[in-house]
Amino acid sequence: MDRILKKSGLSEQGRGLKRTLSGFFLAPLVIAIVLYAPPLWLAIVVAVVIALALDEYIRLTSTEGRAWLLPAGVLTPFIFLYDAGSLLPLFMVAVVLTASTVAIVGRRDFTPAFMGAAKAVFGIVYVGVTVSCIVLFTGFTGGRWLLLCGLLIIWANDIFAYITGRFMGTRRLSPGISPKKTVEGAIGGITGGVVVALGFNMVVDTGLSIYEIGGAALIIGVVALCGDLFESILKRAAGVKDSGSIIPGHGGMLDRIDSMLFSLPVFYYYIIWRL
Question: How many CB atoms lie within 10 A of CB 129?
Answer without folding.
Answer: 22
